[in-house]
Amino acid sequence: MTNLVTAIALLHKAFQQQTVTELQLQQVGTSLWPICRPLLLASHTPMQRIICLNTQAYPNLYWESLWHPVLHFLAKHPDYTFYHQWVNTQISSKQPFPLRILLFTIQSEKELQTTLEIETEQQVLYTVLQPFIQQGLVTLQMPDDGRFSTFTQLLEQAWHLVILSGHAVLSEQADIHFLFETTEGQTTVIPTTQLMRYLQNARIECLVLAVCHSAQLAADLHPYIPHVVGMRDKVLDRASHVFIQHFCQHLLQQQRVDIAVQQARIAMTQLLAPEETWSNAQLKTIVDPSQGQWSLPTLYSQNPLRTLTATVSATDLTPVQATPPPFLIGQRLVLRQLMTLLQQTKAMVWLTGEAGTGKTTIARRICWQLQQQGYDIFYSFDALPLTSTRPYLLYLEVITTETLPNIQQCLVNLNGACLFVSRQFFDSELPMVKYALPAPHFTDFLRYSRYLKLPHTQVQLRLIYHLFKGNFTVVQLFQNLPFTTDKALFHQQLAIAKRFLRGKMGE
């Protein structure tokens, strides 16, 4: 047992440093095999190869590294499934279709060192789910809001699947603390005990904690939620995305939760596309940090045969038109503030910003989010209904001094919300909230540059950011200019960008 404790301590350290090897996992897994024999709850059969352990007495061991003398790593064997259980229920789900899914992402705009690629995560998940959304099989909410208060409000609803994606930190006493956003876009720490209180009373069929060190919380929630997945140690952003993508794909193919988890683990053994390499923030190639990531997802299930939804006839489903959300990196604080303003009674908001600052994408993202909440979106006065029982938003994109007087007359009797978008404010007698779009945070500017695969150094990108006040159009221009480390040539390119932007502003 002493050797196992030492091996686990070394494995934990390797996960923190992203230097895990398959040999380390095998050594730990081999030591776990004799311990696990008395804990086996389900024997495998030719038709149903399920391996279930009652690990309540040993919750913090790296069980997913379990090494069988013949089958090797059981948690990624294609013919078996692997999960934990010490609470059993035979009750079937009573929640009907459509499958209600919540992806709740947490990202402070002020934390450069802990940035998650949450936009990519949202985009990947929506791509996976879009065909099922169109069939009426799935509804998806992905709020641009990582506040704890928003999360607890959403937990008042019933969900088939909740995915919580964000950060957690280990204290010196090995306690887990989850990081949420504040109203100002800062980070606030929520103790596990506080999060636990809300989750154990929530109506959730399956919970995925795509958060580092969340396996212990998953174990604590096992008696309260039919299926819970947590991460045993520090998980890579890409690994988390791949797990969520493949887990949801298999669930929507009507596969059991334990099968979906097993197949998602297998997918995590290959995190890069053939043409990709691992690189750091400066796009320099680094050693593969992904070894062993497949062993982190840990499933606690009361009954893997329990489906997430009650049975339903195809005639009960209503097909819908599903359009993907506009892709936007960052500006979550802006999105949250504008959403709050527009959800007030008869709200009128005027959003302004220079060309290339992302105001149109932000406005369209807000329209998409409001649609997911049941709003109708109209793009002209002619399209407005005479009466409406649903909330609606009037979105006007082209506002000029010539058109404003007519718009003012039409808005007097408007019963819904209204969003104006233009480059600058004009005088208006209407009680409108004027919102000048601030420059994006450098973190978001940097992430957008990396998303476009700009090879520029961080010093060059910071210079571009400050010189052009975070204008995203300039980033797209540099995408078409040859990369150079020559100082004189780079300053020539900056001059070209200045002329280009002046031309855009004059359009």
Mind explaining what this structure looks like?
Residues 43-274 form the CHAT domain. This is CHAT domain-containing protein. InterPro entries: CHAT_dom, P-loop_NTPase. With 507 residues, the protein is of the alpha/beta class. Among the domains are: 332-436, 3-Layer(aba) Sandwich (Rossmann fold); 442-505. 35% of the residues lie in helices and 17% in strands. The protein contains 15 helices and 19 strands. It has helices at residues 2-17, 22-36, 118-134, 148-154, 192-199, 215-221, 237-251, 257-267, 332-342, 359-372, 404-411, 442-451, 458-467, 472-479, 487-505, and strands spanning 40-42, 50-53, 67-68, 72-73, 81-84, 99-105, 138-141, 159-165, 167-170, 176-181, 187-191, 204-210, 227-231, 297-301, 348-352, 376-378, 392-396, 417-422, 433-436. The strands form five sheets. The chain has a six-stranded mixed sheet, sandwiched between helices. A five-stranded parallel sheet has the order 16-17-18-15-19, with helices on one face. A three-stranded mixed sheet has the order 1-2-5. α11 (404-411) links the parallel β17 (392-396) and β18. α9 (332-342) packs across α10. The N and C termini lie far apart (73 Å). 37% of the residues are buried. The mean pLDDT is 87.
CATH superfamily of the domain at 332-436: P-loop containing nucleotide triphosphate hydrolases
Beta-strand percent range: 15-25%
Number of strands: 19
Principal-axis shape equals: globular
User: What is the CATH architecture assignment of the domain at 332-436?
Assistant: 3-Layer(aba) Sandwich
- Sheet with the most strands: spatial strand order: 7-6-8-12-13-14
Low-confidence stretches: none
Q: How would you characterize the largest beta sheet?
A: 6 strands, mixed
> Mean of residue pLDDT?
87
Number of helices: 15
* Intertermini distance: 73 Å
In CATH, the topology of the domain at 332-436 is named Rossmann fold
Domain CHAT: 43-274
Pfam family, one: CHAT
Organism: Beggiatoa leptomitoformis
Protein name: CHAT domain-containing protein
